[in-house]
Amino acid sequence: MSLVIRKSTVEILCAAKWFTRRDCRLLSTLPEKVEVAEDEKERVAGRKKRSYNPILENRFIYPEFLPDPNPNWRNSLREKMERADMLKRRSQIDIPEFYVGSILAVTISDPHAQGKTNRFVGICIERQGCGLRAEFTLRNVIDHQGIEVRYELYDPTIQSIQVLRLEKRLDDKLLYLRDALPEYCTFPLDMDPEILPEGTPVPINPVQVKLKPRPWLERWERQELKGVSNIEEHLKEKDRVRRELRKTPWEKYDLMKDYRKTIPAEEQSEIWSEVYNQLQQMRVSRKKMSRKRMITTPKTQLA
User: What is the three-class DSSP state of 67?
Assistant: First the structure.
C-alpha cells in the first residue's frame, strides 16, 4: 500500500513540474532551443578566444627561441641572455623562414677558399637544438658523392642564408635520404630561387622517395615514415616479425611523454611577448629594404 502511495505522489510531482515548465515557456518570447543554442555559441566562442593566441604560431617559424624542455638543462637567466644575443645576431644577418625539406644556399667565410667564401646548396634534412646551439644540416649529391654540411644557425662566420625553395615534407626528419636514390637529393649549385607570393601558406611536398637495397644506416622499417614508398620491398619475414614485436602503440596515449617534450603554453607566451615586437620590426624593415631594391634602377658604369 505504501508503495502505491509513493508512486502516485511521484507522478503528481512530475506532472506539476511539467505544467510549470509549460507555463514558463508560454510567457517567454523566444523558444527554449534557440536560447540554449545561443548559450552554447557564446560558450564555444569564449573558449576559442581564451585558447587561441596568434603569437604562439611563431613556434614554427622561430623554434630555436624555445628553451630545452628537459628541466635538467633549464636556466632562466642563461635563456634570457641567449635570446638577447640571438636578436642582436638577427639584426646583423637576415635569417629567413625555412623548414625541414626546404632547399637553402648558405655562404660562409672560409680562409682556405679561393674567394675567401664558400657557398653550399642543399636540402635541409634535420633541424635541431635550441638557443645559440640551434643547428641545421644540408645534404646534396655532387659528382655522385653525398655531401652533408652541418651549420650552426647563429654562427658568426655565416654571411648569408638564402631560401631557394620554401616547402615542407611529410616527415620531421629526412635522414633516410642518406639511403635513398641520389636523384632525390641532387640539386645544382647555381639553382635559381623560387619566389612565393606574399601571404601564401608554405606548400607541403608529398613526394615519396625510394630507398636503395639494404643494408641501411638505420632500421627505417621500425619508424613511422610517410615519405618512403618501398620499405616493404626490401624486408624479409623475420624483419616484419621483429617490427611487430617492437611496436609501441600505447605511447601515443602517454600524455606525460608529450608534456616532457614540449614547453607549456604559459611559458611560450612569456617568451614570445618578450621577443615578438623586435622580430616583427626586423621583418617589416627587411620587407621595406627588399621593395626598395626592386624599385631602384641600376646605375650606369662610367668608362
Answer: coil
Taking Cα atoms as reference points, which of 205, 230, 139 lies closest to residue 220? 230
Torsion angle in degrees (nearest 10) through CA of 122, 147, 59, 154: -100
- Angle between helix axes 76-92 and 265-295 (nearest 10 degrees) is 10
Give the tens place of pLDDT for each residue, 129-183: 999 999 999 999 999 999 999 999 999 999 999 999 999 999 999 999 999 999 9
All cell numbers assigned to 146: 653525398
Cell of 249: 602503440
CB 203 within 8 A of CB 173: no
Greatest CA separation found in the chain? Answer: 121
CA proximity to 278, closest of 88, 6, 9, 31:
88
Angstrom CA distances, 78 to 14, 64, 267, 296, stand at 67, 14, 15, 43
> Could you give the 3-state DSSP secondary structure of residue 7?
helix
The string of pLDDT tens digits covering residues 67-77 is: 999 888 899 99
Q: Is 103 helix (H, G, I), strand (E, B) or coil?
A: strand
| Contact by Cβ (8 Å): 108, 174 | no
For residue 266, what pLDDT band results from cuts at 50, 70 and 90? confident
Please name the residue ranges forming H helices in 176-254. 237-245
Where does 149-264 have alpha helices with state H?
237-245, 255-261
Distance CA 176, CA 172 (A): 11
Q: In the structure grid, which three cell numbers stand for residue 34, read together?
A: 534557440
Residue 2 has pLDDT above 90, yes or no: no
Q: Give the other-Cβ count within 10 Å of 275's Cβ.
A: 18
CA atoms of 234 and 176, how far apart (whole Å): 14
